[in-house]
Write a structure and sequence with these properties.
Elements (H helix, E strand, L loop, with lengths): L1 H15 L7 E7 L5 E6 L2 H14 L2 E10 L2 E10 L4 E7 L10 H20 L26 H13 L3 H7 L3
Antiparallel strand pairs: 1-2, 3-4, 4-5
């Protein structure tokens, strides 16, 4: 009964979760030419701020601990439900020895990374890229219009030939 209630509450939690936006810049791997790939991620505190009130409403709490399994260090996220059932998710706690980090900072950075992924796995949380109001869809990589000037002229001539340019533009909210 407790396990069934856990799964029912988890499904209800998923339905109530707000979108979690990626908001922090990070470097995600190395290109073949040795450069770093930059991207966005959702920090642990952002995930927790969105998750915690919804989890509490559905009777969930969670905690983190570390464990050694088959000789490797892991962060474990243990999710508990008010009716007594628990489930856990584990993620490797690798040392993140990025540039300029002390030994302690490298351990702490790896721990935070592992907590973020153990937590999102435990609750099946996904994160989303920020909505730019379709700005990326309408712009080229150089920041200009996504279509060539010749195409703009051709479309303008075609719209003008329709006879009622104002009605056409109004239809598209322009």
């Amino acid at each position: 009964a407790a396990e069934a209630e856990f799964h029912r509450a988890k499904a209800a939690l998923k339905a109530d979760m707000p979108p979690i936006q990626k908001s922090a810049e990070g470097q995600h791997g190395v290109t073949r030419k040795g450069g770093r790939v930059k991207g966005l991620y959702a920090p642990l505190d952002t995930i927790a701020a969105a998750l915690d009130p919804v989890a509490a409403r559905h009777g969930f709490s969670y905690r983190f601990t570390r464990e050694v399994y088959e000789g490797k260090d892991y962060v474990l996220c243990i999710v508990s439900h008010k009716d007594g059932h628990e489930q856990s998710s584990r993620f490797p706690a690798a040392v993140d020895s990025g540039p300029g980090r002390s030994a302690q900072q490298a351990v702490a950075s790896g721990e935070t990374y592992a907590r973020r992924y153990a937590l999102t796995a435990a609750f099946a949380i996904t994160t989303a890229d920020p909505d730019d109001d379709a700005g990326a869809a309408g712009r080229s990589e150089l920041g200009g219009p996504a279509i060539a000037e010749a195409d703009v002229i051709g479309l303008t001539v075609r719209v003008d030939s329709l006879g009622n340019k104002a009605e056409f533009l109004s239809y598209f909210g322009i």
